[in-house]
Amino acid sequence: xxxxxxxxxxxxxxxxxxxxxxxxxxxxxxxxxxxxxxxxxxxxxxxxxxxxxxxxxxxxxxxxxxxxxxxxxxxxxxxxxxxxxxxxxxxxxxxxxxxxxxxxxxxxxxxxxxxxxxxxxxxxxxxxxxxxxxxxxxxxxxxxxxxxxxxxxxxxxxxxxxxxxxxxxxxxxxxxxxxxxxxxxxxxxxxxxxxxxxxxxxxxxxxxxxxxxxxxxxxxxxxxxxxxxxxxxxxxxxxxxxxxxxxxxxxxxxxxxxxxxxxxxxxxxxxxx
Length: 273
Fold this sequence. Notes:
With 273 residues, this protein is an all-alpha fold. It has one domain (37-272): MetI-like (MetI-like fold). The protein has 14 helices and no strands. The longest helix has 35 residues, at 65-99. The radius of gyration is 23 Å and the shape is globular. The chain starts with a helix and ends with a helix. The model has no long low-confidence stretch (mean pLDDT 83).
């Protein structure tokens, strides 16, 4: 019986390793090809030598380096504010709906959020673009239309609802304002959800392609994601820099996840409850 259990456990471990290997192989391939000599890119899986030529091409002092660096900066400029605004809006709405006195409309807001979440993003693309036309080729046009996350608000409402009402009543009796309650109680208590919402919104905005191609056609306004897609064909003969740019595109997300992994796991555990 014990031998049978050990065999079953071994099979699970082997299957897990295989699935993990399949999942990580694209990242391995991307990194290896970004470090390969240009004449070996896409020709070998384990190159005999490595070079930083592709990264130097993107971030060095060449003629095209400025374009790539500018697009990387643009990606940060639009992604960070979008994620921050999403968190702030989620906190405000979540607190207002669940813990503020005399608020009537929680059921309507929840149903509206659920209704909106069922719509594919592509359906809202055209009306969003028509509304945002005055903001074409501006950072405001790239940030504001994507800065309110229905899913994020939904997460905050459900989490804040679980906090005891007695805490807020005691704070009000002590003379705390609603803003102070929000800053001193709600924000510290919702760190795990805030991490989930911030990282999810940041990743979604960081990897956004279609909206940026519509709202910011100018080269100096393009994000790294858009630049990679537009330069893929012209640079088909030297794809090394494309792999290097893709690696650079993933680095901020990996760093953020490593920095906030503790709160991220707590948020995931809450979502699974």
